[in-house]
Amino acid sequence: PTSPDTVMITGFGGTYGLSLSARIVALGNVKVGTTKDSVLAITNSGNDTLKITSLISTNSAFTVRPTSLG
C-alpha cells in the first residue's frame, strides 16, 4: 500500500478541538497475510461534547477498529 493513508473521522459537536496522539502511525514491516495493531488516541480538547460517529480508512488494505464509537 501507498503511504500516507487517510482515516476519515465524522461527527458533530459545538466548540471542540480534536487532538490525535500521533500524526503518523508507523507500522514498520508487516508480512502479507498478517496483521499488526496500533493505537491512536483521539481526544476532545474543547469545551463541548464531541461525538465521533464513524472511523474509516481510505485504503482498503487497512481497517479501523472499532468503526463506530457511538
Q: Could you characterize the architecture of this molecule?
A:
With 70 residues, the protein is mainly β. The protein has strands at 7-13, 18-20, 42-44, 50-57. It has a two-stranded antiparallel sheet. A two-stranded antiparallel sheet has the order 2-3. It starts with 6 loop residues before the first strand and ends in a 13-residue tail after the last strand. The relative contact order is 0.39.
What's the arrangement of secondary structure elements?
Layout: E1 7-13, E2 18-20, E3 42-44, E4 50-57
Antiparallel strand pairs: 1-4, 2-3
Keywords:
two-stranded antiparallel sheet, 70 residues, 30% strand, mainly beta
